[in-house]
UniProtKB/TrEMBL annotation, chains A, B, C, D:
PANTHER family: INOSITOL 2-DEHYDROGENASE, PTHR43593. Residues 6-124 form the Gfo/Idh/MocA-like oxidoreductase N-terminal domain. It comes from Streptomyces lasalocidi. This is Inositol 2-dehydrogenase. InterPro entries: Gfo-Idh-MocA_inositol_DH (IPR050424), Gfo/Idh/MocA-like_OxRdtase_N (IPR000683), GFO_IDH_MocA-like_dom (IPR055170), MI/DCI_dehydrogenase (IPR023794), NAD(P)-bd_dom_sf (IPR036291).
Length: 341, 341, 341, 341
């Protein structure tokens, strides 16, 4: 290979700046061609020291900047729809951070726009699909040695939630990872959701329903349960056990370096998703760069982004009503029927 | 100590014969004084080679046999109520296999009879309370270092179910262990139950809803979920993770001797509850013998037996209706308010 | 069964009193008939509350007390030889705590005395042979699935050493457990020993060579290495990995209840051998009681006790000389050639 | 960053071709400028599809090719010395696969040549220093929480050895990884070595002394033992336990996805070092590219390469003589006294 892929990065916050660094020094085959952020000082800081990069306040200006051949969207969720449509209009491949579009109506408009174009341009940032252990889990489920999956038991814990985190965000921001992972691992759509609310932990901010216990049913008759606990205090833990007809497979068990000191023998628990999934982020962006340079699109699709939004919305309604809530998906455009899911 | 406690064993089937052996050679301080079984040939076989034992067809005859000071009930569940009331009438301490009484009405009659007597005579055979790991788990929850328990995630898997096992028996025979364990670990009563039914495993007998996923709510605001899977094919697994405000504690993870052979490193999974809980059974009977010889009663009470029946009945109704089903308990007699639960 | 086996316990110190309690209440089929200790107050205290027991200052008086049918020797090591010979003279079966006899000359005299009698009377208290995990390890090695054992990697760590513990005692008191375990697991004799001395830990008492690293060669061409570290500070750990031609098997890995708290996930490490091997001690004494009541002798033999002494002596010489030191065993009497080792 | 670092790769065999791919697509900041191999067809194949690359039969021609700013040596060991000296003569930074130079005399000439130049140019390919777990282990040892390291217990197992693998190669090819890892982890030099030879496994080729057990002593009084077993048949396992004054730290325990199937629960054991250390290789080359572009040199030095050769030579002598063999190192040039080791 030779020519580096010129990428416009939209959004220069925590995540955006991290992706700028990754494109510049963490993955091969790409270069940062433009950075956009309404806060141009922040955009300039992220772009500092990179040759040939331009800085913009407006997303569309960045898309039109010289040398831009692809877009990485890391701006806040509400800005995603407009950015995606603008990229599609220009025929630019996109890697879009999750949630693709926060509301499922908007997400569906993105799906329809891409489908009209007849060519896959968008990859959604569900990086768990690139985690080494999740990939092994997927492989084991797909090779059939354990028989049909019956249940997924998922655990998703964070040390603490950021300010302003709401009870609904446990579903549509946190559990959205499990929504995509379950759909991907099982190759099934989620059809109903129930949310149970144990008495909140004393470690949760006043008024936040934390933890929650979320149950999904699938169109294949499987059951997916998720403990979401965003103020657990003790570490960042993401686990998934697939219980199948002939065996079980577990990813995310605590492991790694074992330390024995007075009275205990154990492993360190990562405190942060950036630590736990550092390699997955790298692999995700690298896979996107490689595919894009070859004119292909792989990974999570806009349909996957839409489905995640639709399920999460049903989840929030289930949380509010306390009732089992069906999920209604729009018909799936033909563009997405032959994807790798 | 000196004099051995004379025990009448009611029932000489698989479990009864095992308890006869345990009393004779497995625990100290006791001797088998009488064995009763309608099939007296079976009773004789179990009693073979034991000095001073008498064999009976009728339970009451065994209770009245010379030297009988206590009773171990291992007959089929429907015979338990009559045997318990007969033991109470004679003032004999009882260790009664689970379920104490299969229906909660009968269980409540036993509770009331014991309460009328004003003295604890019955211990119910929830042997999981005597398992070394469950006891450590209980100790960790009680010492408060992890804060208040929020959720229990339980897994209960058997290799295969015996002939005649029904969908309701997954609840009232298998999950009854988790019902008691949850009440004991949390020190809370269960107030409602919901049963989810994923598509049955191909390994389950035709018509059996296996696995099931059972959700209990407690009067302390905790949530208890149980995967019950009695034809999992791969082993006998009983796990429990207590998720608390400041940490989590997990019992029953696969461990023990690690074997590494071509391509895999792992532990042996026990195939049978008699293997996994062998020590718990021994400890249970020994604890009962020791307490009885000192004129005391410890361990799971008749109230615990009643509560397990009542919750299991609600569970079966939840299985049949597909609805969340409240649990209604009778008022708790004063005799049981100061127990160790 | 009926009649209880009357046992004389010699020595009423920490270990002896524990065995008195075990015979009285921990195992079935036995009763304490006599207790002997030069400190008769201590003997009386251990025997308190036991019916029909007599207390003695002299070991031989206890052997001759009414109802004594067997002997458990838990007196200090230097008293063992005389007690064993006295028991042999009376035809009494013996369970003798390790070391059988501290010096290999005395141990050989015991072997020769028992061999002259033509009947196995002595079982040596190597309780690791009764540990559940070691038994699984032995079974796996014996069933041949892993092929021939090539190496044993052993770790033996104590929190701290008692006052007066010498560098030689790391070999002849601590490593003696591995000496017996290796001989038993491999079914081979140890033929040479080398002791390496890393710079002592700052946690070891002044002048104590702790840790040490001990290498044994066997007559089957296997290698056994032992880390012995008696002031490790962090817990009581006994591990053994058998590396074989087709796989490896590891016993004693830290396991049990898993606790996750801020930053760490792990297991509790036992701090004491009485905790770690509690079940093994119970099983050991029970096995001896059962065999004795049936007129049989099983378990570690006097020859095993002698071999352990002889190898430990060579080990101490290796420690002092810094050289590889061959082990010379006397010819094995025919009495011991058909044992279960 | 902008300009890509032009790298000449010497050697286009298995390892060299893998590095060409890594530089071209696996790491950022570098490009392959030249490939050299006496078998030019092989070199052409490795270079296929890369823009601006030239192909050469002679290493020196590649060093002089246009755009070459740095060298990666992946040719056979005997060719390394000449290639290193040629790179030094041109002032080119080098990443040299291990062994740096097979014999310690030649390795010392390389050290002296680099020291004369007064500037660090060489990094040796000890990729274990870049493995995530080893790095955590190093960090834990360095931060002092476990106190002074007393012993390292190492295990190094391969499924099978390639044709032509000799008994000496277990030391100078395989154990050389542990030689460097021990020196790096402890920050100490190895001063003596003893090699023990258990009876070879039936799985080893006729005449190969496999496994071996190697003991190193250090100038800090620590002990390093290594089980090297290159025909273990069951997997690729690299483990290291550091036993310290206040605790122990273990890297390389089998972990990852846990699979439970009939009778066993366990993890997959990788069968190959390229699988186990894939990330380490990527991190290694990336670190070298990044440092080189900034005009710095980090990582294992030529001195580390020399020390590994010298220790391995002593190890082979110890293997042949059966005796403890001291290691004699030349005086360390000042250039290497302030390195990160």
């Amino acid at each position: 290979m030779s020519e580096l892929l010129g990428v416009a990065v939209l959004g220069a916050g925590h995540m955006g700046a991290d992706h700028v660094r990754r494109l510049d020094r963490g993955v091969s085959g790409a270069r940062v061609a433009a950075v956009a952020d309404p806060d141009t000082a922040r955009a300039k800081e992220a772009a500092a020291g990179i040759d040939g990069v331009t800085v913009h306040a407006e997303a569309e200006a960045a898309l039109d900047a010289p040398g831009v051949e692809a877009v990485l969207i890391a701006s806040p969720g509400p800005a995603h729809e407009e950015a995606l449509l603008a990229a599609f209009a220009r025929g630019l491949p996109v890697l879009c951070e999750k949630p693709m579009v926060p509301d499922s109506e908007g997400a569906l408009r993105v799906v329809e726009a891409e489908a009209r174009g007849g060519r896959r341009l968008a990859q959604v940032g569900f990086m768990r699909r690139y985690d080494a252990e999740y990939r092994r889990l997927k492989r084991v489920l797909d090779d059939g040695r354990l028989g049909r999956p019956l249940m997924l038991h998922c655990v998703h814990r964070n040390v603490s939630s950021p300010p302003g985190f709401t009870s609904a965000m446990l579903i549509d921001s946190s559990v959205s990872h499990e929504i995509d992972a379950a759909r991907w691992l099982l190759g099934q759509e989620l059809t109903a959701v129930t949310v149970l609310r144990p008495r909140p932990s004393g470690g949760a901010p006043q008024g936040l329903l934390d933890p929650q216990f979320v149950l999904f049913e699938t169109d294949g008759g499987a059951l997916v349960d998720v403990e979401i606990f965003v103020n657990c205090g003790f570490g960042y833990q993401v686990r998934c056990e697939a219980v199948c007809e002939h065996g079980s497979a577990r990813a995310g068990e605590d492991h790694g370096l074992l330390l024995t000191t007075a009275g205990t023998a154990g492993a360190e628990v990562p405190q942060d998703y950036l630590v736990r999934f550092a390699d997955a982020y790298d692999r995700e962006v690298q896979a996107w760069v490689d595919a894009t340079r070859q004119g292909r699109a792989t990974g999570p699709t806009a349909w996957d982004g839409y489905a995640a939004s639709a399920v999460a919305e049903a989840g929030v309604r289930a949380l509010e009503s306390g009732l089992r809530t069906p999920v209604d998906l729009a018909p799936r455009p033909a563009l997405y029927t032959d994807t790798g899911r």
